[in-house]
Design a protein that fits this description.
This protein is mainly alpha-helical and 176 residues long. It contains eight helices and four strands; from the N terminus they run E-H-H-E-H-H-H-H-H-E-E-H. Strand 3 and strand 4 form a beta hairpin.
Length: 176
């Protein structure tokens, strides 16, 4: 199951900026280096048959995570979030535009009125904050991040061998 994790909860909600600007402003990366890194990711994604555009938005994902919580209640959380993320990285959807989030949610069977209600309210705020607290307790500071057995953590994109080792360790701890 996917859990809510905001990379930058301090950013203002309802706004976004180009990801290259974020790399420069927040992470101190020179603009030409930021573009080069993103273009390399585009090439790597294309080699795997995945769409990935350099010029995409970045912003506070709190509202998206509240809709994710709604989607989990309907059993479509992972499908909704994966679709939204894929469409964002492909440059087709702006996840910081409420109307576009609603459109993706309805594709996964979430009632439009329910999704709009969540976005217009504070609903699921507690759930997002609880996920954030659990992540902090596990030492999670970025994504992707996997937690196995509720306590073994794997940060970043890791090899199949690394995941195999973590799964074997978790299985050994369960049987011990």
């Amino acid at each position: 199951m996917l859990h809510s994790f905001e990379l930058h909860p301090e950013w203002p909600r309802g706004t976004s900026e180009p990801v290259l600007d974020v790399a420069t402003r927040v992470h101190g990366v020179r603009p030409e280096r930021a573009r080069a890194v993103e273009e390399e990711m585009t090439r790597r994604a294309a080699a795997e048959g995945l769409p990935f555009v350099v010029d995409r938005p970045a912003g506070n994902t709190f509202d998206v995570h509240r809709v994710l919580q709604l989607a989990h209640r309907s059993g479509v959380g992972t499908a909704f979030f994966t679709d939204l993320q894929t469409e964002c990285f492909a440059g087709h959807v702006d996840p910081f535009d409420s109307a576009q989030v609603v459109a993706v949610a309805t594709r996964h069977g979430l009632p439009e009125d329910d999704t709009r209600r969540v976005l217009a309210s504070g609903e699921f705020t507690q759930e997002v904050h609880a996920d954030r607290a659990r992540a902090r307790a596990l030492g999670i500071t970025g994504v992707p991040f996997a937690v196995v057995g509720g306590r073994l953590a794997v940060a970043g994109a890791q090899s199949v061998e690394t995941y195999s080792q973590v799964l074997a360790r978790a299985a050994a701890e369960v049987s011990a």
